[in-house]
Amino acid sequence: MLSRRQIFQILGGAALAGRLRASAPSAPLIQRALGRTGRWVVPFGLGGQASLQYPAPGMDVADIPVRAIELGVNYLDTANAYGPSQRIYGEAFWRLKITPGHPEYNGGLRERLYIATKTGQRYAWDKSRPNAATAVRELLTSLTTLFGDGKGWIPDGAYLDAIQIHNLTTMQQVDQIYEGLDARGGKMPDRIGALAGLLDFRDGTNYTGLNPEHRHYVRHIGITGHQSSPVLMRAIQRDEWNILDTLLVALNANDRRYSSHQFNVVPLARAKGMGIIAMKVFSAGGVYTGMQRQPNNPSELILSVGVPGGVPSEDLIRYPLSVPGVAVVIAGIGRIDREKPERDQLVANLAASQMDSTSPEEQRRIEDAVAAVHGVNTNYFQDRQSGIVQPPAPEVVKDGDRVTVRWQSALAGPDPVRSYNIYAGEWRIASVPYRPQLTAEPLSLVISPDEANLGPIRVEASTELPPW
User: Fold this and answer.
1) Strands 402-407 and 395-399
2) Inter-residue contact 305 to 345 (CB < 8 Å)
3) Which end of the chain is more exposed for a tag (fewer CB within 10 A), N or C?
C-alpha cells in the first residue's frame, strides 16, 4: 500500500488537503490523449459504481465525485443502469457550480471535465414498441438527472462529453445498433438503431425525426464491452463513418487468461484512433473477494485500499495503464478519507496512475502474483479462450495474372498475433507482419499465379515475427 509520504511525493499537498477550491489540483497531474477526441485525461477516472451505485445509509456519497474533481480527476463515468449514480453526480456538480444555470456557474471547470454515461438500449426508435426504452430516451434521462431537475427539464448549455452504447455481447446486438444508419438523409425505417439516433444529438441534425429541436447534447459516441472481443471488433470494423470515438473495455491482470482484450480489440481501437478506457481493473472487487458477480449492496463493497496480503492496488491500476493505447482506467470507489489519505481509495488509485508504467517483465510479475494470490477465475464477465483462433478458409480471387488472397482477422490467445503466414500446399509462400483489420473488408495479399498453383491456399496466424 502506498504510504502517506509516497502519496505526498506523487500528488503533492492536494491529497492531504481536506477541502480544495474546485479549480485545478495544486500539483500538475500527468495526462494522456483520449484518442482522436482532442481531449486529455488524467489516467485515473472515477467509475460510476461501488458507493455511487450502492451508497451506505448516512453516507455523503456526493463527496466522492466532489473530492475526485478537487484532486484533478477529469474523466467521470456513470450509466443509466447504475441506480442513483447519475443523481449523485448531479448533486456533486451543483456543489461544484458546474451545473448550467447555477448562479455561480464555473464554465472553465466544466470544460475540463469529460463526463461519460451509457445506454443499454440498442434502438433509438421502434415503431412497433413506441413506449419502449430507447437510447435517445436514456440520453435525455441522463441529461435531466445530471444537470436538470430529474423530471425531464434540461437546462440550456447542458451536454455530455460521451454517451456509450453499453455492454455489447452478441453479433445480433451489433446489427441492431447499426440499423437505419445508412438510411440517414432518406426515408427512415420503422426501427432505428442507437447509432443513427445518437448521431443526430451529436451533430444537431434531425435525420431520424428524433431531434426536432436540433439539440447538440453529446460530443462523442462510444461502445463498451466486458465479454467478447470479437463482438467489439465487429462493431468497430463496421464503423466506416468513424462515429465511434471511444471504447470502454474490461482489462486487468487476468486478461491474458481469457479471450484477451489487450491483444484483440484494443490494438484495433488504437489503430482506429479511438480513446480507450479500461474498466474492471479490480473485477468489481472480485480480484480481492473472489466473488463471481457484481456487488449488489453496500455490505459487499471493499472499503479499504487493497486487502491484507493481497496484490497491491497500485499494481492493479498500473497494469492496464501499461497496455499500449489505454488512456485512462476507471474504478468505483467504496470510501474516501479526507483526514487519512493513505486510507482513501480515490487518492491511492489516482497516485498509482501517476507512477511510471510497468515494463513487460513487470506486467508478467503482476499477472503471476494475481494468479498465485487471488487465482485466475476472476473475470467471470469475459469469454474463455486458450490459444489463437485461426482465420477461416481464405478467399482466393484470380483476375488474369493477378491472384489475391483475402482473409479475416485471427483472434489472439494469451500472446499477440505477430504475423500471418500464407501457405500453398506444403510451401510457405509469404509471411506478413500482423496488422489490425480496420474494416469489414478482409485483409489481403497479392501472390503470383505460379505460387497459387503450388497447392491449396491457407493462412495461419503466428505469435512469431516474420522470418524475413
Assistant:
1) antiparallel
2) yes
3) C
Look at phi and psi of residue 280 and say left if phi exceeds 0, alpha if psi is from -120 to 50, else beta: left
Going by C-beta distance under 8 Å and a sequence separation of 6 or more, which residues neighbour residue 172? none
- Summarised one tens digit per residue, pLDDT across range 161-183 is 999 999 999 999 999 999 999 99
Could you write out the DSSP letters of every residue in 285-335? THHHH--SS---SGGGS--SSS-TTSPPHHHHHHHHHTSTTEEEEEEEES-
Angle at 37 between CA 34 and CA 39, to 5 degrees: 60
Which pLDDT does position 6 carry in this prediction?
78
Helix (H, G, I), strand (E, B) or coil at 176: helix
For 93-154, give the DSSP string: HHHTT-STT-TT--HHHHHH-EEEEEE--SEEEETTSTTS--HHHHHHHHHHHHHS-SSS--
Indicate the residue type of 266.
V
C-alpha cell at 74: 477529469
User: Closest Cα partner for 217 from 262, 159, 146, 256?
Assistant: 159
Q: CA-CA distance, 260 to 245, in Å (whole number)? A: 21
80 neighbors 363 (Cβ within 8 angstroms): no
Instruction: For 9-51, write each residue's pLDDT tens digit.
Output: 778 777 776 655 555 555 689 999 999 999 999 999 999 999 9
- How far, rounded to the nearest angstrom, does the alpha carbon of residue 334 sit from its chain's CA centroid? 21
Round to whole Å and give the CA distance between 281 and 254.
9
Residues in contact with 223: Cβ distance below 8 Å, sequence separation at least 6, in sequence order: 164, 165, 168, 232, 235, 236, 244, 246, 247, 248
pTM of the model: 0.96
Q: What angle do CA 222, 240, 203 make, to 5 degrees?
A: 55
- CA atoms 118, 120, 126, 130: torsion sign: negative
Under the banding of pLDDT at 50, 70 and 90, the label for residue 212 is: very high
Nearest Cα to 63, choosing from 279, 346, 306? 346
Report DSSP state, residue 452. Answer: H
In angstroms, the Cα distances linking 179 to 167, 173, 174, 350 are: 18, 10, 9, 40
CATH of the domain spanning 4-374: 3.20.20.100
Domain boundaries, the chain: 4-374, 395-462
| Nearest one of 279, 193, 258, 284 to 412, comparing CA atoms | 258
